[in-house]
Amino acid sequence: MGEFSKAELLILEKCIEQIESQVLTGIEENADKDRMLYASCLNDEEKEELTKKEIKKQQKKLAKCPSDIAGYMTAYINPNSFDIQDENLDQYRERIIRNYVATTFVDVCENLLNHKFKTIEEIETEDDAFWEVLIKDHFYGVDDDSIRAFIKYLTIADRLKGYKSILESIDAEKALEEYNKLIEEDENEIYKLLDDVRAKEYTGLQLFKILKEQTNLEHTALKHFKNDVEIYLFSEKDAYEANFTWEQREEALKEKRDQGNTTEDLVRLGYLREVLKLPSQRTEGDKPSYYINTESLLFPWEFYSIYELIRIINTELAKHEKEPTNEESNTTSNERLKVNMSVPQLALLFKMVSDLKPSIFNLKSEAELHRFISANFQTKNSSVENGISENKLRILFNQPDSKAIEFWEKHLRTMLAEIKKLK
Description:
Layout lengths: L5 H34 L4 H19 L4 H11 L3 H4 L4 H16 L1 H10 L4 H6 L2 H7 L9 H40 L5 H11 L4 H12 L3 H23 L4 H13 L4 H6 L3 E4 L13 E4 L1 H5 L5 H19 L14 E2 L4 H12 L11 H11 E2 L11 H9 L3 H21 L1
Helix pairs in contact: 1-5, 1-6, 1-9, 2-9, 3-5, 3-9, 9-12, 11-16, 12-16, 17-20, 18-19
């Protein structure tokens, strides 16, 4: 059907209020339990361990979520910056509920208007008890099983989201502590060195000499030095980006548009990045949405030398990782499995399998999977010597390529058809 009538919108609003009320009740009950659990912890280490255990527990519960509402849970747990826009968490959760009700209550609206309500006034004056009973029982075409599941799993998703937020804050605090240790003393040589690299225009050869002086190109030293550089880059870039207001970003983007650049041009030039979704997260008629790449737009060269230094470190690390050990066989790059896919297509395949619940891979981190792909696969475009870049895989896991999504959307249909033939 087309747009909702005023009467239909009023019915939807009443149903939304009831569902939101029940979700909030569940969230508040969970909050009381969580406060009790954290109060029982003796120290920060126990709190961190508790958080990790609870995350696994909620993930197991969420794995049983019915497929017809799984998309809503995914959108709630892992929203992108464009999804949330300027909303706080409560507003975003309400929008998720609105989307669910607007999608599933079409027939309910029609049945209520045909068999119960004749005027808007009747809807407005109907007692709250009616709406409370409506969403709990199978009247007027209400799918009460779906509603109960939606409320249950949205409450679980909120709890999981809360635990993840706590763990992320713990990780961020640890990263900040590492960073503070790095800059604690004015005499810190590495920090002063990286400031110098950032401020001056070093050639690639000069950067290589700096790296050799610091690490002697030894494998362990290279890894430690790379970690120091990445912590520096993360913290300094975040602090530098904070200097720019939202208005400054919008104004800079407007200047690019005024120069005759279309949205497609801005994406191609790296000033805008498209917010991509997997097929399960997309709906018919979705329009592309974008977010501003502040670094490319306002300070593209500020950290150029630091990025170049990291690139050189990665090149040297790759040389070590290709050297066979006594325990390993003399595996060469020619023994990688060759696949007739692009790197984005291969990355999305592994991402989809990795995201299945319950988990198929027994991994300590996503980086472990990136290393496996890099070491064991060669695509039609990847380098025979160096394989697939782990950094590129990390980027593609976080933001899948649109053409790769279309590729798997097409081939998954074919695979499903073939599976059905096997029954």
